[in-house]
Amino acid sequence: MSKGVGVRVSLEAPFNKSRKVKHLEEIGETYWEHCKFALRFAFVMIVTGILLVIHAFFPNAFKSVGSDVIKHMYAILEMRSNGDEDDDIDPV
Description:
Layout: H1 17-27, H2 31-57, H3 65-81
Helix pairs in contact: 2-3
């Protein structure tokens, strides 16, 4: 079994206005642009999670959906971090 990735989560950070504004400035998005993008990704992750639960019980179903979606989402995030903005990006 693999070890988990060390991710530190602070309950204070999401509600700190200066950190929120700084993050939006760093990524060059408005609040609503960021919200739309994050919600689209969240929806894709939820649907993918459901499909992976089905895959757990029926191994022949959705064989590569998890890795395919992760690769696609990573590619989208890489493009965005390189400044290649495309509003037509579909996370799936």
